[in-house]
């Protein structure tokens, strides 16, 4: 019994009693009426995760219990009024409805906040839900966004087409590497958000997060960074960004079996997004299922190990492919334009990212390469997404960036033959490299290519 009480006090936080609601809130949470937990910043994301609150199961299990309820009961009628008035909330273990807050989803948010070194985090049903909700919370009708011209196709379409039509929010796209252009594009008093990806999809351009954050803050804008391509490798909030977004579906999940997203940032912002009257997350309802949150909470502890292997293999393949004469784009290579910048920002020991690109110049050649890699040598799969234990390959211009027109793709530096590879870690490195070499050999054999 003593052990259970100790465990509850140290890890699980104060639980509500059955007879009274009048006690001090759990000090793990930000403040009275605040809904999200505060996390201490650590320089190494793995260390921060290790220091995060561990939620034990209801009966003392080492893993937390899944709170699968859609709605929650109260002990006294007056309690419900106080909950809807904002006087009682999850900080005191009072829950209303799982579209608002769910204990299992909150625990995943706690881990995401630790991972990114932010005050708070909340998890959503998809990465696009996280992106759209943040931008709608920060921008009102007539608002303006400055964004990188090289973005995931879905994000680009949201900013280019949907927001102007449905929300009267406009975007100016810039070369995120041209700091002067970024500065000139921001209109003080009107531009609400400076938005970019830490490593761009698909060109693997690395953003100067500290410099861009300084520019954004000098101009009074909120700096929002999509860190989907570089969890553990980069920590944008520790480098000055205000908000960090993730498609958890990718590296963080690692299994290519769930769709999920996360918003990591100041407690004031994340709480405002859950406001009953004005919150984009609360009112738009991109709710994460508690069972999904449980699954993901069990995968985050070994994210660091997985990322190290993704990055180690990507680096090795990039070096070898370059020696074979292929046009390889990888931030770990010394000839990458932002190689030194990435070295200066990256968390030590996590490498340079798990993705690389091979520019085959034409879509036809790109498709032939992927055909051989999948169907003849089993090096990987032709599929979108990333972060899976198998290597995933796609021709970005005709797939994940297909929402962009030809001019936009050219400005973004997306070649028609650009093959994006998310390097997996299944099998041995030499086994997989042999498969890649055999596919390249087939590519060079004209007679075989003609037969296929």
Automatic annotation (TrEMBL):
Coiled-coil segments on the chain, per record: none
CDD domains found in the cross-reference section: CGS_like (cd00614)
Residues that bear N6-(pyridoxal phosphate)lysine: 250
GO terms (BP aspect): methionine metabolic process; transsulfuration
A GO MF term: pyridoxal phosphate binding
Signal peptide annotation: none
Family note: Belongs to the trans-sulfuration enzymes family.
Protein's name in the database: Methionine gamma-lyase
Organism (species): Gossypium anomalum
